[in-house]
């Protein structure tokens, strides 16, 4: 009898109550569940070669991916946070900072310095989401301002890579003021006629999305990144609206005109180099043909194809990506 | 504010000088507290509200316009809340949409062009969350509103008159002089929002409020605010006319001081003011 047949299938990748497969590691693709060894991840620029999913990248690794070998010189490395409010939630703020410092090896959620990208010297500010959610407190604000100072002093373009949940609540209203502080630096850059390239990666929300990160002369986003002021959960809870599938994603932002380019990570370095070279008014940067140089059916080639599928998939009214001609 | 004035309002304080943060939050949100339009009709000899961002629409959560204030033309921009349910819904609880910030920017630029000082009044629980607001560019609007204020050649005075929460408040809060009413609060996030994230329970809002140190005194001590504006005894909601008079006097005084500074120096000073904010070790 049909009702006696047990159709339960026990699966090892059943969600474990958190909506994630039980055996999931940080190198498991959340989209297609492909697994990678750590060395594969590094080689693939932390892009899933099966589906094009972009994994998070730490600040140090991002710098390695973006800049010319050995060209990065860090500044303001000694800045670290104080506790202006004496803030304690479930644990004191300084304890949280210490824990984040131990787990990331960073002193705060941004690394800044001078570098060259495709031969163009730039000032570079890179955020790290793994340090307290990339939240912007006094140190991040000051570091961005120092990177802008460096750009002004040496007449360089400024490149920032934002990855942040927003302002750092534990620094209260001072964290809020970091928005205005970074905007003041952008104002100085614009007044001095120095270009600013803003790269937005997953996720860039809240106070960072609504300050310097939105003010790039050229705004570049990685595919599939959440870029919004209010996150999807807050919007759902406060307004009860049903959210579109691509709520706040790069692709939606592109469609509504808030980003210039969506660039898959394997092409990001060359795109930043090209934009920086042109905006700096120097010799154009001619990248070695990426797809020609790297085996097109190999790992990076597949990643690119996957990322492009995602980029173009939600924009049926356009042929190809904003930056590719295939 | 003089020491004697501070002493006069001593009944709001606790031992240690810090007023009860939650009490301040509730006073700042009091439904009878004067809102932007309540002040404008009292401090201006004439005020003409301007509407629309010239692109998408008009945002009732932001009031912007030009007025005559004690003998000079001034551009005013402020968040606007509503008092009853109908008004509150119409004003979207004082939560601006991108159109609101773009309307504000239009008026900032107008003032910059015509040489009018700008006065902004901050009173918002935050920028409007929503699918439409995001699609129409909430982040960019908030960032560009700050940039516009950072750049205008004319004097800018900001006053927090109620709730100043998050980027939605700061978007119109970049100023040469930042004032704050005695019972207003200024925070990076609403206490409820902070509690929901850090305590995983919006019910912990009181504890979050105390931790965030949102009071005028705390903001003055942190260097975020330059001057605390007195309110009538018991709070601004007790006497709108007197509250407006005190606010008008403070604005007039600050305008006189800041108008005397040459424009280039004023702009540089405004940038330097925000550049210097923060607490870190090196």
The proportion of strand residues of chain A reads 5-15%
Oligomer: heterodimer
Which value, in Å, is the CA radius of gyration of chain A?
Answer: 21 Å
- CATH architecture grouping of the largest domain in chain A: Alpha-Beta Complex
**Biggest interface between chains:** A-B, 66 and 55 residues
Terminal CA distance of chain A: 56 Å
Instruction: Tell me the structural class of chain A.
Output: alpha/beta
- CATH topology of the largest domain in chain A: the name is 2-enoyl-CoA Hydratase, Chain A, domain 1
Give the averaged pLDDT of chain B, no decimals: 93
Count the domains of chain B: 1
- SSE string of chain B, helix = H, strand = E? HHHEEEHHEHHEHEEHHHEHHE
pLDDT under 50 segments of chain B (min length 5)? 1-18
Stated plainly, the CATH topology of chain B is called 2-enoyl-CoA Hydratase, Chain A, domain 1
Q: Work out the helix count of chain B.
A: 13
From the structure above, extract its key features.
heterodimer, A: 326 residues, alpha/beta, 2-enoyl-CoA Hydratase, Chain A, domain 1, eight-stranded mixed sheet, 14% strand, disordered C terminus, B: 282 residues, 13 helices, 9 strands, globular
